Amino acid sequence: MDHQKALEWLADVLGVNGRTLTIDDTRTTVREWDSLGSLLLLSRLEEDHGIVISADEIEEMDSIKEICDILERKRTFG
Amino acid sequence: MKGMLICGVVSCIPTLEIQNDRDYPWFEPSEIRKVTAMAGIKSRRKADESTCTSDLCAAAATKLLNNLGWDPASVDGLILVTQTSDYVMPSTSCMLQHRLGLSQACASFDVSLGCSAYVYGLWLSNSLLMAGACHRMLLLTGETPSKFVNPKDRATALLFGDAGTATALEASQEAMVAHYIMMTDGKGAADLIVPGGGFRNRFPQDESQYCVAMDGGHIFDFTRSRVPSLIQDMLDFSGKEIASYDYFVFHQANEYLIKFMASKAGINMIKVPLSIDRFGNTGAASVPLTLTLAGLPKVNKEYFDVMFLGYGVGLSWGAVSISVPKNCVLDNIEYQPVREHIFQT
Q1: What value of ipTM does the predicted structure carry?
Q2: Which of B49, B107, B289, B330 has a beta carbon 3.0–4.6 Å from B11's, enabling a disulfide?
Q3: Is the entire prediction scored with pTM above 0.80?
């Protein structure tokens, strides 16, 4: 899987400007990942990658790595 | 159901325009951009302190009666569907009966529903007209969410707008068959709620309890999971195809979701009018407001086939498949305050 592409995609969805996301980032370090950010993630996961997860599932996630793992399982950027 | 003709629809909006990117300096521009990207809301209208749902609906109804040339005394049924009635009691519809100069022989009552207001209101009106209980009805749907939204709440502050609408309905043997699907799941009641001010929590100390609280994720999930199947169920029930419809008028809660659901169902966006970018989520008013702003397609047909879709607070959702005659009067006005009609307590 191309982690870099996944991270670029995540930065675009969450509207992260001026810095690069890393696999070690979390909700605490990415302030753009708020409740609205979660909704944007839900919608873009389905729209861009055909991945359907619930709002509760995404709320339980805390790290960028967990999102990348989902994308990896789907091999979206592989 | 047979027997109901939509004769006209008028919507009424307040004059004060709120722009999300201009009027919320306490939110960061990036947050506002996210709301715009997700919900598609750029501006909304806001009623002033003294203007209620009844004022907006009364102005719409007065214009509608005038446009149609209907004698107010000929109306024998009035339904107001709203979540923002003027008083806990009496029913706002009773005050509107008097204000609009309707006959005392007019059944008037309120229904407490929001996002699904229009589809439920049409279903209820059609039932009464088909049964012969009423002959001419006014269906009023409206909302002033600006009065229950906390302007500092990032989850809701940028979403809602105020509006009122009036729809004139008449019993008619010539009317085409309309199809209705009405649904409810009260398990999600807490996902969109004003917890204080009712009789379960009459005077809460915490003032935020008087404001709307929304679990955006759950509402998003609800919409995404229920509405596509609702569209398919209505197609099956009505025996029509996507191509048969001239319009699909969705409740205006989220532009992204509307486009997503339309795409999933194979509906061309040319058939999906939108008002959310300019007027936000106007709750009970959103579907008829969107219809009046769109106008009927410029095609030479006797009837236009329309699917109305409402979904949200309750949780309550439903769909109507109905034929709108080409001479149906559609109009939109801005509210001009008429102070002498305000009831003094």
Answers
A1: 0.70
A2: B289
A3: yes
